[in-house]
Amino acid sequence: MGRWLPIRLLTWDVKDTLLRLRHPVGEEYAAKARAHGLEVEAATLGQAFRQAYRTQSHSFPNYGLSQGLTSRRWWLDVVLQTFYLAGVRDAQAVAPIADQLYEDFSKPCTWQVLEGAAATLRGCRKRGLRLAVVSNFDRRLEDILTGLGLREHFDFVLTSEAAGWPKPDPRIFHEALRLAQVEPAGAAHIGDSYLCDYKGAQGVGMHSFLVFGPEPLDSAVKCSVPQERLLPSLSHLLPALDRLEGSALEL
Ligand SMILES: [Mg+2]
């Protein structure tokens, strides 16, 4: 282990760490389709979305920015592809639904702050910790965080769209550390993805915590993350930081 530095910076994942969608994606898509006169099952759309999103992310990583796409175009194509896979082949009928969905997902009311998130962020600030966002997200994130009253807690919001690299690419973490002027050993990242958050941050020498929700953790993940780095909820973060600093003092 490297030399011990007190933790000064916490970087945060957003989706499913601080915020979640109020309704499942399939339901949002089905409701917008209905408003435009198209009846499609929410479950079918949900399944089609997951497939379209996977394919799009694979073919055009990080919103296809290096391939000439914009994040908006990238998302409109995901919606078109989702409806196509769900059996709606009329792209002209889907185009206004895609525009509407893009707008709606940028509205704070589409999102919900997870339990304990606001109190934990306030508690961290009270301790004098600096906070920043490191998120695989597009340009809409800043306004969403502002609308939900969370933006004020963060020194800066670094999205993969702005950085040019998505997590777990080490360059997005290095960019956050550069912006904060903090060494990796003086920073900890909190997120819900083992690969993107936990391993990504650890890979650049940061401390790392994995948040998990009510669903049981994948057993392979559970075996490879030390107990003291697992957070069953955000309210476990400050005690976990105390234990980390306490164990360092005993060294
Ligand atoms: Mg997440």
Helix content range: 40-55%
Strand and helix order: EEHHHHEHEHEHHEHEHEH
- The strand count comes to 8
Runs with pLDDT <50, length 5+? Answer: none
- N-C termini distance: 11 Å
Biggest sheet details: 6 strands, parallel
Into which percentage range does the β-strand content fall?
Answer: 5-15%
Order of strands, main sheet, comes to 5-4-1-6-7-8
Which small molecules are bound? Answer: magnesium ion
Radius of gyration: 19 Å
> What best-fitting shape do the alpha-carbon axes yield?
elongated
Question: Mind explaining what this structure looks like?
Answer:
The chain is α/β, with parallel strands linked by helices and 251 residues long. 47% of the residues lie in helices and 13% in strands. The chain contains eleven helices and eight strands. Helix 6 (141-147) links the parallel strand 4 and strand 5 (156-159). The chain is elongated and about 65 Å long. Magnesium ion binds next to loops. Belongs to the HAD-like hydrolase superfamily.
Summarize the structure.
This is Haloacid dehalogenase-like hydrolase domain-containing protein 3. By secondary structure, the chain is of the alpha/beta class.
Question: SSE layout and pairings?
Answer:
Layout: E1 9-12, E2 19-21, H1 25-35, H2 42-59, H3 71-85, H4 91-104, E3 111-113, H5 117-126, E4 130-135, H6 141-147, E5 156-159, H7 160-163, H8 170-180, E6 187-191, H9 194-203, E7 207-211, H10 219-224, E8 230-231, H11 237-249
Parallel strand pairs: 1-4, 1-6, 4-5, 6-7, 7-8
Antiparallel strand pairs: 2-3
Helix pairs in contact: 1-2, 1-4, 2-3, 3-4
The structure holds magnesium ion (MG).
Magnesium ion binds next to loops.
